[in-house]
Amino acid sequence: MSLSVAPRRFAGRLLIMMASLLLAGTASAAEPTQAQRAAFKQAYAAAQGGGDNWRSLAKGLEDYPIYPYLEAAALTHNLRQIGRTQVESYLKRYPDQIPAGDLRRDFLGELARRQDWDNFLAMYQPGQGDALACNALQAQLSKGAQLDFDRDLAALWAKAKLPGACDPVLSAAHDQGLLTPQRLWERIDRAADAVQPGSINAMAAWLPAEDAEAAKRLASALSDPGAAAVAANQWPDTPRNRQAAAMAVERLARRQSVTADIAWQKLQDRFAFTQPQRDRVVYALALFHATDYDEGALSRLAALPAALQTDVSREWRVRAALAQRDWRAVLAAIDAMPPTQQQDGEWRWFRARALTELDRGAEAQRVLTPLAQEPTFYGFLAADRLEQPYGICQLQLTSNAKREQALLANRGLQRAFELFAVGLPRQARREWSQALDGTDAETQRLAVVLAYRRGWYDRAVFTFNNGEALRYYEQRFPLASQDGLVTQAQEAGIDPSWAYAILRAESAWMSDARSGADARGLMQLLPSTAALVAKRNGISWGGGDTLFDPVTNIILGTRYLAQMAQRFSGSIWLASAAYNAGPGKVDQWLEARGALPPDLFVATIPYKETREYVARVMSFAVIYDWRQHGNAVTLSQRLTPIGQGFDLASVNGERKLVGCPVAAPAVPAEAATAAPASSMAPPASTSNGTH
């Protein structure tokens, strides 16, 4: 290399370095300021009230990433007063943005309300939901068009439930003679499978009188199976009445298995049920006698023909045996499972428990040894039994400054981060999903890094949900201090690790979480419950919406947890069950099976959601304890016998070390939350629904 070239190369590199620094400075300067965010919040509040007052408050924000949300909010508020020109002007300026799609959809709904079909058809785009699809068909009908079943209705007709906007279209289809009895019965059967009695009753009106009565009986079997099972004793033996009678008994078994048994004894000789119908009823009776822990339930499940058994029935055979502490029956039930089901951590634990109780300790240890390396509820119990460290293998997230800067140039992510920063997390999540749709795992990982730095913790929970990513414990189990959880838990007299675990299980750190039952915020409190807790503790109460404020939610949530713990003699695992299912349900279970040790009691909780919730919360408490202290009070110490409380102070000195096995085991994904008593597997399926 010549001496004259080297200085030029050095100068070139220096220029590149200076340019990089300049670019970095530009990116930093482009980061929105707190003043901009404050101005946006003011303008957004004004825009939500309609009119143009927001514009004066938004001066200087024209280049702010989420500026389009302001005008969209104002237009949405004024939906009944605005016209197509205003909406199309907005759509033209922001064609691919989420608020534009929302505005188009909402305005189309308004045009349908006005029955302004000309403008509706001019603006309509397919793929915006069933209601607008039906509005579009109604618009065509208003122009004198005729419906074609295959072209216009087949896709809608395949759905068990449709919105009210489809009623005029279906009426027109009926008037055109398109809804033949065969088509009506096909959809009635789909509605029956989907448990939609309302849809069945609506279609019954278009059937001949005799068929209409049969359809109404199907609807009755779904909505009031007890009454239908009694009424069936007077029905003639027809194929449709057999269907309704069998369905009534099957549905009744979920609610009252003994009553369903009595009804079946009366009906099985009255009707010439098909073999599949008989199989479904026999399966339902066996399964739901087990979920009620009735006498004889275990033998009924064991006697089910192999063709009728499912993963659900085999699982409940184990639970019924556990409730009786019949350890030989436990082993037999687990042995009857297919190999893949046997590998579930729960069944490996109870296989080891049964082997231990039957004095086969060496076999039990061989089962427990690999299980003890897994960072799960049953893995932690196995580690406690073997007196081994917990197998928590943490991965550290690494940063990549260059790629992060490139990612920050993504306008969709910019909008997502700003929406989160100004307190609009729902909109932020939508922008996040759109911006990262189709991206690779590394891009998503870096996006989570950026979100985590901004205090947006739920992104890690939902992104790192399988495989090796489950080992990013720092991000998946954040120790957010800004909301005061540790202080509030200590003031309430409860273990902060348990409070963290409840919060993590309830909302996954989504401060705006809201359940179908109207539970709100980080710790998912009902407004009515929160009001009582506030009154009991002398805390000011500002109404249900204050539960979306993390600080308020945590203050009230920790006090309610303390209240539940006190109600159950200080038992935090029973209090966790009560937090999920309600204290009344836990009282019922204690009355029925209160003599069981904790692990058996948890396994025999009738609700799948609550079983998994308790296991999840208690394992999360161990992980959060380790996250705070580097070691953890054992899970076995937390699972105090029924009637005894958990006293953190008395066990704080007895902590478990955490280590990473030489060959780190795969981390099982967290259990999904399912509603109790939601679905039952038919004999030929492997559904996970339970009572």
TrEMBL record:
<dbReference type="GO" id="GO:0004553">
    <property type="term" value="F:hydrolase activity, hydrolyzing O-glycosyl compounds"/>
</dbReference>
<dbReference type="Pfam" id="PF14718">
    <property type="entry name" value="SLT_L"/>
</dbReference>
<dbReference type="InterPro" id="IPR037061">
    <property type="entry name" value="Lytic_TGlycoase_superhlx_L_sf"/>
</dbReference>
<feature type="domain" description="Lytic transglycosylase superhelical linker">
    <location>
        <begin position="410"/>
        <end position="469"/>
    </location>
</feature>
<dbReference type="InterPro" id="IPR023346">
    <property type="entry name" value="Lysozyme-like_dom_sf"/>
</dbReference>
<dbReference type="InterPro" id="IPR008939">
    <property type="entry name" value="Lytic_TGlycosylase_superhlx_U"/>
</dbReference>
<feature type="signal peptide">
    <location>
        <begin position="1"/>
        <end position="29"/>
    </location>
</feature>
<dbReference type="InterPro" id="IPR012289">
    <property type="entry name" value="Lytic_TGlycosylase_superhlx_L"/>
</dbReference>
<feature type="domain" description="Transglycosylase SLT">
    <location>
        <begin position="488"/>
        <end position="597"/>
    </location>
</feature>
<dbReference type="Pfam" id="PF01464">
    <property type="entry name" value="SLT"/>
</dbReference>
<protein>
    <submittedName>
        <fullName>Lytic murein transglycosylase</fullName>
    </submittedName>
</protein>
<comment type="similarity">
    <text>Belongs to the transglycosylase Slt family.</text>
</comment>
<dbReference type="InterPro" id="IPR008258">
    <property type="entry name" value="Transglycosylase_SLT_dom_1"/>
</dbReference>
<keyword id="KW-0732">Signal</keyword>
<dbReference type="GO" id="GO:0042597">
    <property type="term" value="C:periplasmic space"/>
</dbReference>
